[in-house]
């Protein structure tokens, strides 16, 4: 038991020595500001679509999501989203734009392997498990709802 504690202590000291020092308050502030700014952009898109095209309800939500996914993918393609991520950390992982980034980044990284085996196959490496879990979860919820509806 003592031997294991010795190894754990050495390992923890090693990790502490090579880990970069971070300013947690600054990181949290940056994440909050950038994440909030991305959400403000989404809200501005919503107001613009409401005012200009008179969209409402589900149609409005779908178009706002579409625009935000496009912006996230476009900025990733330009390399801007990566710089935003380095600056903001977790603040750049606002659900829709962060998801678009997680799909586009691997696709760009593996494009040298070709369109089928590179871009298409690697596109969902990061986002794939999320998509699978989302689809499986929605199927299960749908089945529970259906069975409950049939029983009652």
Jot down its keywords:
152 residues, mainly alpha, 7 helices, extended
Task: Please explain how this structure is put together.
By secondary structure, the chain is mainly α. It has a domain at 24-109. It has helices at 2-18, 24-53, 57-78, 80-88, 95-109, 115-122, 128-151. The chain starts with a helix and ends with a helix. The mean pLDDT is 87.
Itemize the secondary structure elements and their pairings:
Layout: H1 2-18, H2 24-53, H3 57-78, H4 80-88, H5 95-109, H6 115-122, H7 128-151
Average pLDDT for all residues: 87
Strand portion:
under 5%
Uncertain parts: none
Compute the separation of the termini in Å.
Answer: 58 Å
Protein structure class: mainly alpha
Roughly what percent helix? over 70%
**Strand and helix order:** HHHHHHH
For the sheet with most strands, the description reads: none
Radius of gyration: 22 Å
Which word captures the global form?
A: extended
Total helical elements: 7
Total strands: the figure is 0
Task: Provide a quick synopsis of the model.
With 152 residues, the protein is mainly alpha-helical. It is built from seven helices and no strands.
């Amino acid at each position: 038991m003592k031997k294991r504690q010795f190894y754990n202590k050495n390992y923890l000291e090693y990790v502490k020595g090579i880990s970069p020092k971070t300013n947690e308050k600054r990181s949290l502030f940056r994440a909050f500001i950038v994440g909030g700014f991305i959400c403000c952009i989404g809200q501005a898109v919503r107001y613009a679509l409401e005012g200009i095209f008179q969209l409402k309800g589900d149609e409005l939500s779908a178009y706002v999501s579409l625009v935000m996914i496009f912006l996230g993918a476009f900025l990733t393609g330009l390399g801007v989203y990566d710089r935003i991520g380095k600056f903001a950390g977790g603040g750049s992982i606002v659900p829709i734009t962060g998801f678009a980034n997680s799909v586009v980044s691997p696709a760009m990284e593996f494009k040298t392997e070709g369109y089928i085996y590179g871009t298409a196959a690697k596109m969902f490496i990061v986002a794939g498990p999320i998509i699978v879990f989302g689809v499986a979860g929605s199927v299960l919820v749908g089945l529970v709802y259906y069975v409950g509806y049939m029983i009652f």
